[in-house]
Write a structure and sequence with these properties.
Elements: H1 8-12, H2 18-27, E1 40-41, H3 51-59, H4 78-91, E2 103-106, H5 109-120, E3 126-130, H6 137-142, E4 148-152, H7 165-177, E5 182-188, H8 200-213, E6 216-220, E7 256-261, E8 274-277, H9 282-289, H10 299-310, H11 312-340, E9 343-344, E10 353-357, H12 359-362, E11 377-380, E12 383-386, E13 399-401, H13 405-420, E14 423-424, E15 426-427, E16 438-442, H14 447-466
Parallel strand pairs: 1-14, 3-4, 3-5, 5-6, 6-7, 12-13
Antiparallel strand pairs: 2-8, 7-8, 9-10, 10-16, 11-12, 15-16
Helix pairs in contact: 4-10, 5-9, 11-14
């Protein structure tokens, strides 16, 4: 077979994966004025609410001949790094002033994750990430760097709480008993897919944990400015950057790193701009500059982002209006869910999506031993994985949930009906959800498109109710 002629690195990246294939299908048949029968995407974390304003702004900028050169080199122009440092100082409330030399720019945050993984982990080393988690983290840390993403199960705990730290410690100890050296944790802050912010106390708890085991703490803050407020989420935890926390007696500052980019807060997924900010680890930045050629940001991206960052009147308008439109989308989606009896994780106030609970509709609630599939209990990694059906029950000590086969089948059946109806939402399995029946549903699309998408989703929900949740 041709696969046998590939390197081991290439072979481990085969196949691309079901989630990736779904995304390619959606992107290749997207709904629009020229494709009214296309797929309405309510599953991709892309913010289309401010595209027209940004396009108009960028179209006013002069495209200079210097944009066609190598510029200042492969790790970010001086002008952009200066503009970014001012941006962080003005908007992220850092304890210590951010300096341009503490920033490395790359062609997107995916590239930055690849770079920082190379910098802090050797091949086969592990990086802890709490479940549910951003679907691409696994590939970002593994595909080239060869590190191992280690999902951390919440087992009923709030995934972004202080008490979740105990789960991280438990998983670290388990992995190291099995021979995997844990080198770092990645926090999605604000969280994707939950759309919630970590409390200051929780962030401090993670810092203490990383200090105890000498782990790098990588804070992915790409949704930092995509915060919104409505009457129904006014009490949600506000965003706090790790930059705003005095790390004295918490963590050695050289272990703390921040990821940021253009895709989310600046609604520019296609321009591919990402940064690594490490205030107290010059050796890390220096080592990564030696391989920055492989992730060189485009000069056009650098110059457009610089112009945007330096225009504070427009930037302030943009963030305020973006927040208002996100709030309107959130209100529209929660109203739809309420009308259809669909729950969601409350307290969301960040990002472009809600973590929605379709378990009741699909009959996929899970709990403790007792599934009538008869699958029973199996041993895995020193713990008992248990089939379950009862909701809101906790597993016995030493057991963890494993969703029943029928729940998985119902989930797949439901997703198939959504795709038949030409509406795409992201399935929980793509986010390493611990239970079937969870979906990430995005609301950051223009209102006319959101209207069509929710109409299609509503029709599917009514069909599912009539058919008894896909029961077999």
């Amino acid at each position: 077979m041709s696969e046998q002629t590939l390197s081991k690195r290439s072979q481990q990246n085969l196949p691309a994966g079901a989630s990736f294939e779904k995304l390619i299908q959606v992107l290749g048949d997207s709904y629009g004025d020229n494709n009214l029968e296309g797929i309405v995407s309510l599953g991709v974390a892309e913010n289309g609410l401010m595209h027209e304003e940004l396009a108009a702004y960028f179209n006013k900028l002069e495209f200079k001949s210097s944009f066609l050169t190598y510029g200042d080199g492969p790790f970010g122009s001086r002008a952009l790094r200066s503009a970014l440092s001012s941006f962080f100082n003005d908007y992220f409330n850092p304890v210590q002033k951010v300096l341009p030399e503490q920033i490395l720019v790359a062609g997107g945050v995916t590239s930055v994750i690849d770079l920082v993984t190379v910098g802090v982990a050797d091949e086969g080393d592990g990086i802890l990430i709490g479940r549910p988690l951003y679907t691409s983290f696994k590939n970002d840390v593994r595909a080239r760097a060869g590190a191992k993403m280690v999902p951390v199960s919440a087992q009923g705990k709030d995934p972004i709480s202080e008490e979740m730290v105990a789960q991280y410690e438990k998983e670290l100890q388990k992995q190291e008993r099995q021979g995997t050296k844990i080198r770092a944790i990645i926090l999605s802050s604000p969280h994707n897919p939950l759309g919630k912010c970590y409390s200051i106390d929780a962030l401090k708890a993670y810092m203490r944990f990383c200090q105890k085991y000498r782990l790098h703490l990588i804070s992915d803050e790409v949704y930092a400015m995509s915060i919104y407020q409505t009457p129904s989420n006014a009490s949600a935890v506000p965003f706090t950057s790790v930059l705003a926390i005095d790390t004295t007696n918490l963590i050695d500052a050289n272990l703390l790193h921040i990821l940021y980019g253009m895709s989310k807060d600046f609604s520019s997924n296609g321009l591919r701009g990402g940064i690594l900010l490490s205030q107290h680890n010059p050796p890390l930045l220096s080592s990564l500059k030696s391989i920055a050629l492989f992730s060189w940001p485009a000069s056009t991206t650098e110059n457009y982002w610089t112009a945007l960052l330096n225009n504070r009147p427009f930037l302030d308008y943009y963030f305020a209006e973006n927040s208002r439109r996100l709030a309107a989308g959130y209100a529209r989606l929660t109203s739809f869910f309420t009308a259809h009896g669909i729950g969601w994780v409350e307290g969301s106030n960040a990002g472009f999506f809600l973590w929605a609970d379709f378990r009741g509709l699909l009959g996929a609630d899970i709990g403790v031993v007792g599934d009538d599939d008869g699958a029973g209990v199996e041993e895995k990694g020193g713990e008992q994985m248990v089939e379950a059906v009862a909701v809101n029950e906790k597993p016995a000590q030493g057991q963890v949930y494993k969703t029943s086969r029928r729940a998985k089948e119902r989930d797949e059946w439901f997703f198939g009906k959504l795709m038949e109806a030409k509406v795409y939402v992201a399935t929980g399995d793509a986010f390493f959800a611990e239970e079937h029946g969870w979906y990430r549903v995005s609301f950051s699309v223009p209102e006319p498109i959101l209207k069509v998408g929710l109409e299609r989703l509503g029709r599917v929900l009514e069909e599912v109710k009539k058919e008894g949740g896909g029961a077999r």
